[in-house]
Amino acid sequence: METTPREAAQALLQLRNSQRLAARYSSNNGIILLAWAAIHLLDMLVFEAGHIAHSVVGAVVGVIIINGSLLLWLIWYRRRLPINPLRALTQRVIFLWSWYYVALIGVGIGGWAVFIGSYPVGWFVFLGVLGALPLAVCGYRLRQQAQV
Amino acid sequence: MPRNKLPDSETTAAIHSDVQAPHPRFQLDEAIHQPVRLSILGLLAHSQQVEFAFLRDHLGLKDANLSQHLTALETLGYVTIEKGFVGKRARTWIAMSDAGRAAFSNYLDVLRQIISQSEDQ
To answer: Which of A2, A102, A144, B18 has CA atoms 20 to 30 A from the CA of B12?
Structure first.
């Protein structure tokens, strides 16, 4: 079988594109992380609104509806993806992020309430941005890597 | 070694074997090197499972044509084919076996050798 170095290089390039394509049509395409980041930010905006309106119940109901919708969308979206990735990067990022989230909320809400007291205006939005940022950055990077 | 002394038999054998070492292109797995199969395996290499319909649409093949390639790869033990359901929809999933991964990794090594040999020359 005759294969020139140029053909070999083309084959390797084709395979690199296949890798990107596999990422694009799997859960490693960054969309789930971007959606997760947006929902987290939205959750905190709802908490901020609840804080301003002095309505904790309203905020909790809003967050349950938003997160429930995300869950349903996730189930639907994952089912229609034609590729199961070899390495579940999205799950790994979410797992690591959940530790960061627990620490952020623990300090930012629990710690703040115990040691300082009332929350300043915009505090929940600030926590939302801090929480969403790692997910958004990872999601954006995965999205970039999945572009063919 | 004196200038005019002939090389001993061991040295001759070493030189001879070096000259006769086959070019890496002869080690390319023909079953993988075929363009459609290379595209299939390229996708499978980075996936746990790929849906049959996606492969068919992405590669622009007919069902029968893709089935032929997959059967050939399955016969070699490079892929596994699994039929299942997602909800009420029947789906066929294709996965690369361990033997397939080993063969594909070897194939990539050979491609890299071909390129590096040309760069050395």
So the answer is: A2
Residue of B nearest to A2 (CA): B25
Buried b (16+ CB within 10 A) or exposed e, B52-65: bebbbebeebeeee
Whether the Cβ atoms of residue B55 and residue B40 lie closer than 8 Å to each other: yes
- Tokens 């070096």 correspond to B18
Per-residue model confidence as pLDDT tens for chain A (148 residues): 567 888 889 889 988 888 899 999 999 999 999 999 999 999 999 999 988 888 889 889 999 999 999 999 999 999 889 999 988 899 999 999 999 999 999 999 888 888 888 888 899 999 999 999 999 999 999 999 888 6
**pTM, to two decimals:** 0.79
Q: Which residues of B touch A2 (CB under 8 A)?
A: 25
For domain B27-120, the CATH class is: mainly alpha
| A56-80 and A31-52 helices, crossing angle to 10° | 170
Please state the ipTM of this predicted complex.
0.76
Interchain proximity A11–B111, CB inside 8 Å: yes
| Burial status of residue A82 (CB atoms within 10 A of its CB: 0-12, 13-18, 19 or more) | buried
Question: Cβ contact (<8 Å) for B115 and A14?
Answer: no
Half-sphere exposure (Cβ direction) of A100: Cα atoms closer than 13 Å: 14
Whether residue A85 lies within 8 A of chain B, CB to CB, comes out as yes
